[in-house]
Every structure is written in structure tokens, then in C-alpha cells.
Specification:
The chain is α/β, with parallel strands linked by helices and about 800 residues long. The chain has 33 helices and 19 strands.
């Protein structure tokens, strides 16, 4: 069944073992060799993996402790859009009807399971389900529409809130592939989530006969993106590999190294599951051989060696015979995963869970103590500001022991889940320092006329003083632009792809196709950024604009950063103002003011590794654009090597330029994101700003720019939705664009795979007590036709049926609808 499984020479395995025994960093090539360790070599490998596990437990203060989570299994739906050849969990609608099973579990059925689990002391509700069944099965789409949910994930979110409030169980969500915006939406209702990577063997997905052929969500590239999106969203995340489904040892090693690399970037992988294939009846793989025990044990040990001592390595205890579980402990696991005293493993129903007393005894026989943990692991519970959303923190803290494990005798009872974001704190009473109090008093009457000393004081505000600053900025925002959170429906195109002779390259016809699709999806704006390759004609920037304008004359073209404007002028040998006039005449309507970074040449040299032009060129390009009749955004990247004085000088420069030209439509403070920076810059610039600095920068910007630039935008692709809510509660008023991906070349967008829906925006705004309003690029109102067209693409269900839990009807309403 498994391709390319030639057994390496025993001396190669021994050499690899020698390297890891000496403490050398394991390479992918060595890991591939170690999967074949058997006999004496396997014993040596197990000794290494056990030692690494024990080092990690000692360092974490849990010497000799193996953990598990006491859970209930909630199979919300057995429908799925995928067709995995080994899966027995998934059913068709006809089979569900024959068995008398519902399309989706109802809220009453979900609560029945959750309440029974809480009564037994369970603390986790594992939501598992098929991937986006509404994409394949009309009956799933009909059920969701009839009950008022835009998607299966929308329903899962509402049910997670229901379980939190009614039972106190902590949801762990496994809905399959999730987008960045879906992870953001689910984070406030679940302390952890998961999705198995399974394998990076693309051939098993792309080639007929592969176990994942015909399964759209099993593309390894898509699943790897979910891992990174979960890390960016600060979600404690469970993933792992499924072994024995046709992959070879090189692919096994690659999958583990991809998981490790994602964790090294984000620090979010809370456990890596190493799962062995077990053949299931009535599947395409029912006659295949189960993964052999020695092969499995070696793979678990390799996972420990690859992931290191600090990682949690999990093996499901029901997929290995009880008398062999000791081998998995020798292989270096430190966690048994979720074990239920109530519900079956619905993915492996033929393999019952071991009794908890039995599992404890087997663990004890191997020299370890079995301890209960929560669905989020201790290191994440110990750093809640970073990893646990404020809205579920009380639910987690009620069940957590001081060491971050479960408080085993804690009562499992429901607690309210706040319908409003907790980002805006109570402002009823506070104690302010003399200087900041004076600054706030002055700002309350003349916010744009403070001294530099006052603004610098406020940029460094924290605690009650920061709350007071945010409250004042919010009041000014309300008086200036009202309460609606505004947005534009747009799409990004990366013009640096134009003319590239690669798979990612774009032709003018393809750029036109992207414009057509954007318009068909309801976009009113197309944002074009990126330096055109040097080999393209001097007219390349103009050619792109003309190609779009010929196809979509009604789209607003928001095109070209200052560096690209200067590049186009240089190519054509034109003065800046003449080139901008040519761009305007070709069809450019406004320009993005990105690339400003901090308007300080020393800082710019550090952040761009010397590649940025001086700040004076950015100012000159913006001045020329405004005088050519092209309005622009204004930006600032903050939270790296700059000082508060440099932040203030940047804001002062923007204010002066706007006083001269009146050309800025909005100010966009952008937090520095270390992951997006080159390695040398990241080492110098540090981890990026914290929530305090983001709140202060947005609030001070609202004050200083008052009467000049009316709109302050929350850069949601960098802040995330929770922190965007925080700054929207402290001076910001706009969420920018939806950044539609579409289906035609979504990777061609400058921020590909970061897209929101109107429903996402409505929920985000509703949770801070605000409404939303679609705008044009220039903050005007779209036409009635544009509004209707946008809503047609993102319309909420026309009707919403009440679900049969009268005392909790409000829980079942998807937020923001």
C-alpha cells in the first residue's frame, strides 16, 4: 500500500541515531531514516525519545505526569464535502435518513450530551463534524437556511456559546479547514481548536486512487495555511499526522517538519497527534493492513525527536491495544488526548475508549501519574492575555488549577458569555496622574492642539489613564463621524506579478478577469500595489490601469504606492506630476499611502534593510498625487524600533501635509508584524507592539488629526478582529476593505487568503454595540444598485426559525445578523 518504502541500510540508521544521541539537531533526512529503526536500533531511539520527553516534563514542573482531557464527543453532523477513502464517520443524506439520524444535531440534542458529560465531571466538549457539508449537499444548505445560519461554522459558533452558558464545558472545535476570518470568529467561543494535517503527500490528494482524491479540503497546501492562520490568530491549536494511508517515510518526515516550522513561527501548536491507520469496514480501504505496531512506535518516537522536549506528543489510547500502551510511553508521548467516560469515538467507533481507571493503572505501571488537563494546555492558560479571549477567560479560569491543568473537582456549571466585546472597559472611576490628567483635560476641549509633551504622555498611557484616553477618543469619533463602522468592498491585485514567467505570473487579460470577478462579487474598489518587474515595458503601470478600465469602467481604481509612482515616472522619464496626471487620465482614482513606515530616515533604513527611499520622497509623492487630484490614504507602521517621539513626528508630518493639500481620506496605523519582516529586521525590531501600544496610538491619532483627517482605520489583517474591536472602541471608525479573494487566482492578492464577509463585519461591530455601513473609497455612499448587489452576494437568510429552547433563543441567533 505504501509507496517507496525501501529499507535503508542499518548503518545509515545507526549513524542517524548516533547524531541524535549526541544531541545534534535532527535533520529531515535523519528523521526519514529513523522511521525504519527496528530491534536494537528502535530501543536506542526509544531511549532518546523518552529522555527528551522527561526533560520537557521536568522543565514544565510536571515531572512524571501524563495528561488527558475528560471530554464528551459531539458529532454535530456526519455530512461532509470530502470523500476520504478510509473514513467511516461520514454519511450521505440517504444513509442518515435510513438510520434515523438528523442532518445536524439540534441544540436540544447537543445540550443533552453536554449536560450528561458535565454531570460526569467532563470539562471538554469536542465538536467534530464533516467539512463544509453545505458545499456538497443541498439538504445541508437547506437546513442551515431554514434555521437562520449562513454556514456550518456559523452554527458551530452559536452551539459553542450555548454549551458554555448552559453547561460550562469548554468547547474544542474541529470543523475542518477554517479561513482566517472563521478562526477569528470562533476564537471568542472556544479556548482551543484543531485540524489534523494528516499528510503533506500532495499526490494522495491530486492523483486518482489517492486516499484524498476528490476531497477539496485535503489539499496539504490548504491545510498548512490553516496552521499558520491559527498561529496568526493566537489560537491554541491541535494538529498531527495520520500514518499508514499511502505516504512514505520522506513524506512522514516532511509533515512533522512542517508542523514544527509552523510552531516555530507562531508558538501555537499545543499538541501533535501521531495517529495510526486502522482499516474500517464499508470503506475503500477496508482490506488494507493496519499500520504495524513497531512501525507506529518508531513514528511516535521520531515525532518526539523532531518536535523536541517542549512539545506535547499525543497518541490516542483506543487505537492501540491496552497491553501495548506502555510502548507508546517509551516512545515519548506525554498526553493521551481526549478520553470520554460517556460518548464513543465516533471517528473510530470500533475502538472503545479505555476506562479511565484502567488508563491510570496502565500509565502508573509505566512509572507515570495520569492527570487531567483542560482542552487548552497549561502554557496557554498561563498566558491568557495572549492566548485566551477575554470573553471565555472566566469559563477557563473556573476549571483551571494554579498549574494550568484541570482542577479535577471543580464544579462544571454554565456561565454567561458576554454578547459585547470586553475591549471597552468601564470608565466610571479612575485615578489619573497629574500630567496625563492635564493632557486629557486639554484634549477634551481642543484635541488637535495639545503640546508635544502632552501627546507623548498620552502615547505612553496605560491602565486607567489609557482607558480614559480611549474613552475620550471614542467620544470624539462619535461626534465626528457617528457610530457606524464603515467598510468598502474591494479586492487586491499584486501588480508585481504582471509579466512574470512563472505559475504565479499575471497577463493583462488575467488582470482584467480578476477585475471582472471583483465586480461580479459586488466590489466597488480595486486596490493595485506592487512594483512591476524590471523587464516589463516603461508603460507597464499605465497598461495595467487601461486594461482594467477597459473591462470595468465603474470600478474605483486605488492604485500604486509612492515607490511605484516614482518607479513609473523614472521608467517613462517624466516628472512626478506629469506621470501622476497620466495615471489619472488612464483611470487611477486614488492612491494608497502605504510605504510610509515611520517618516524618519534612520528607522526606514533599519526596517527596509536600506531599500526604502528617504522620507522626503514619500512626502513628495503624496504631495504631487494630491495636487494631481488623487486623494490618498496615510499610514504608519508602529511598534518596532521607533520611539514615541518618532511616532509623534510622523503624525505631525501627516497633519502638515494635509493642511497643505487636504488630500488624505483616512489614517491607517499598522502594527509591525514580526512574521512578515525579513529575519535580520525581526531580530532588531523585536516582537511587535502589544495591545496597550495599539490602543494608545489609535487614540492619540484620533486626537491629533481631529479636524483634519476624519477617519482612522483599524488594520484588521494585522490586528485581528478582537484587537480591531479594541481600537474601534477607542477612536477608530473604519475597518477598511473586505479584500475579496474570489476563485480566480486568489493568491494574486497582496493579502491573499485574508478576506472578510459583511456578516463578519456585522458581528464584529455588533459585539461592541455598533452598526456597519458600506462606503465608497472616498467615504461617500454607494448607489442603491451597488448596495443591493453587495447584499446579494452576502445576504443573510431571508427568514430565521426559532429553535426549540425557549429560554435561550437569543443564543441561537448568529451574532451580527
Amino acid at each position: 500500500m505504501i509507496d517507496d518504502f525501501s529499507v535503508p541500510d542499518v548503518h545509515e540508521i545507526q549513524d542517524a541515531l548516533g547524531r541524535v544521541e549526541r544531541g545534534n539537531t535532527v535533520t529531515q533526512a535523519d528523521a526519514e531514516l529513523l522511521f525504519s529503526a527496528r530491534g536494537g536500533e528502535l530501543d536506542r531511539l526509544l531511549a532518546v525519545s523518552s529522555r527528551l520527553r522527561d526533560e520537557g516534563l521536568d522543565a514544565s514542573g510536571r515531572t512524571g505526569v501524563i495528561t488527558y482531557s475528560k471530554k464528551v464527543f459531539i458529532p454535530v453532523t456526519h455530512l461532509c464535502q470530502d470523500r476520504c477513502h478510509y473514513c467511516i464517520f461520514v454519511e450521505t443524506p440517504n444513509k442518515l435518513a435510513t438510520k434515523g439520524k438528523p442532518i445536524y444535531m439540534s441544540p436540544d440534542e447537543i445540550l443533552e450530551v453536554a449536560r450528561a458529560g458535565a454531570a460526569l465531571g467532563c470539562k471538554e466538549a469536542l465538536f467534530t463534524l464533516g467539512d463544509r457539508p453545505e458545499n456538497r449537499w443541498p439538504v445541508a444548505r437547506e437546513w442551515l437556511d431554514a434555521h437562520g445560519y449562513s454556514s456550518t461554522i456559523d452554527y458551530i459558533r452559536a452551539m459553542a456559546i450555548l454549551v458554555l452558558e448552559e453547561t460550562g464545558l469548554l468547547p474544542h472545535l474541529n470543523p475542518g479547514v477554517m479561513s482566517w476570518s472563521e478562526l477569528q470568529a470562533l476564537r471568542p467561543v472556544a479556548p482551543s481548536m484543531g485540524m489534523m494535517l494528516e499528510t503533506t503527500a500532495t499526490r494522495l490528494w491530486s492523483e486518482k486512487g489517492g486516499v484524498h482524491y476528490g476531497s477539496p479540503d485535503k489539499d496539504p497546501a490548504l491545510r498548512l495555511r490553516v496552521l499558520d492562520d491559527a498561529g496568526r490568530s493566537k489560537v491554541p491549536f491541535t494538529t498531527g499526522v495520520l500514518l499508514g494511508i499511502g505516504e512514505n517515510n520522506a513524506e512522514r518526515a516532511e509533515a512533522l517538519f512542517e508542523i514544527r516550522a509552523s510552531h516555530e513561527r507562531h508558538g501555537h501548536i499545543q499538541e501533535t497527534i501521531v495517529q495510526n491507520f486502522r482499516a474500517k469496514p464499508r470503506t475503500a480501504m477496508q482490506n488494507e493492513v493496519d499500520l504495524a505496531l513497531q512501525e507506529y512506535v518508531a513514528a511516535v518516537a521520531v515525532a518526539r525527536v523532531v518536535m523536541g522536549p517542549d512539545a506535547t506528543i499525543q497518541a490516542p489510547p483506543n487505537l492501540t491495544d491496552a497491553h501495548e500502551l506502555g510502548l507508546l510511553l517509551r516512545a515519548g508521548i506525554d498526553d493521551w488526548g481526549g478520553v470520554s467516560p460517556l460518548t464513543a469515538d465516533h471517528v473510530n467507533p470500533e475502538r472503545p475508549w479505555p476506562e479511565l481507571d484502567t488508563l491510570a493503572a496502565l500509565t502508573r505501571d509505566a512509572g507515570f501519574e495520569l492527570r487531567e488537563r483542560l482542552t487548552a494546555h497549561p502554557q496557554f492558560i498561563g498566558d491568557p492575555d495572549q492566548w485566551i479571549d477575554a470573553r471565555i477567560r472566566p469559563h477557563v479560569e473556573a476549571l483551571a488549577a494554579p498549574n494550568g491543568l484541570a482542577q479535577e473537582d471543580a464544579p462544571v456549571v454554565g456561565r454567561p458569555w458576554p454578547r459585547r466585546s470586553l475591549s471597552a472597559r468601564s470608565l466610571s472611576s479612575r485615578s489619573l496622574s497629574l500630567s496625563k490628567g492635564a493632557a486629557l483635560l486639554a484634549a477634551s476641549t481642543t484635541p488637535a492642539a495639545l503640546s508635544d509633551a502632552h501627546y507623548l504622555d498620552l502615547l505612553q498611557a496605560s491602565g486607567a489613564e489609557l482607558d480614559a484616553l480611549a474613552s475620550l477618543a471614542d467620544d470624539i469619533r462619535h461626534d465626528t463621524v457617528g457610530d457606524d463602522v464603515t467598510f468598502v468592498i474591494n479586492r487586491n491585485i499584486d501588480s508585481s506579478l504582471y509579466g512574470l514567467d512563472t505559475a504565479n505570473g499575471l497577463t493583462l487579460d488575467q488582470i482584467g478577469d480578476l477585475a471582472d470577478e471583483a465586480a461580479s462579487l459586488g466590489a466597488t474598489e480595486l486596490c493595485i500595489q506592487g512594483a512591476v518587474p524590471d523587464h516589463m515595458p516603461a508603460t507597464a503601470y499605465l497598461d495595467i490601469v487601461r486594461a482594467i478600465r477597459s473591462r470595468q469602467p465603474g470600478l474605483h481604481l486605488h492604485a500604486y504606492r509612492p515607490t511605484e509612482i516614482a518607479d513609473g515616472a523614472r521608467r517613462l522619464g517624466l516628472p512626478l506630476d506629469e506621470h501622476l496626471s497620466a495615471l489619472r487620465d488612464a483611470g487611477v482614482d486614488s492612491v494608497p499611502g502605504t510605504g510610509a513606515r515611520i517618516l524618519d530616515d534612520g528607522v526606514r533604513r533599519i526596517l527596509s534593510e536600506g531599500g526604502d527611499p528617504p522620507a522626503s520622497e514619500w512626502i513628495a509623492a503624496m504631495t504631487a498625487a494630491h495636487r494631481a487630484g488623487l486623494r490618498s490614504t496615510a499610514t504608519m507602521i508602529y511598534g518596532h524600533v521607533e520611539t514615541p517621539e518618532q511616532q509623534l513626528a510622523h503624525l505631525r508630518s501627516l497633519a502638515r501635509l494635509h493642511d497643505e493639500t487636504g488630500g488624505f481620506t483616512e489614517f491607517i496605523p499598522m502594527p509591525y508584524v514580526r512574521l512578515d519582516a525579513p529575519a535580520r529586521v525581526a531580530r532588531v525590531a523585536g516582537p511587535g507592539p502589544d495591545a496597550r501600544q495599539s490602543r494608545a496610538v489609535h487614540a492619540v491619532a484620533r486626537l491629533l488629526l481631529h479636524g483634519r483627517i476624519d477617519h482612522v482605520q483599524a488594520a484588521w489583517t494585522k490586528l485581528g478582529l478582537a484587537e480591531s474591536q479594541s481600537v474601534l472602541s477607542g477612536g477608530a471608525d473604519d475597518l477598511g476593505g473586505l479584500l475579496l479573494d474570489g476563485t480566480a487566482r486568489p493568491e494574486a492578492g497582496a493579502e491573499a487568503h485574508r478576506s472578510l464577509t459583511i456578516a463578519d463585519l456585522e458581528r464584529t461591530a455588533a459585539e461592541i454595540g455598533r452598526g456597519v455601513r458600506q462606503r465608497t473609497t472616498g467615504y461617500g455612499s454607494p448607489t442603491a444598485e451597488q448596495l443591493a448587489f453587495a447584499r446579494r452576494a452576502d445576504a443573510p437568510p431571508a427568514s430565521r426559525l426559532q429553535l426549540p429552547i425557549s429560554e435561550r433563543r437569543s443564543l441561537l441567533e448568529p451574532a451580527g445578523r
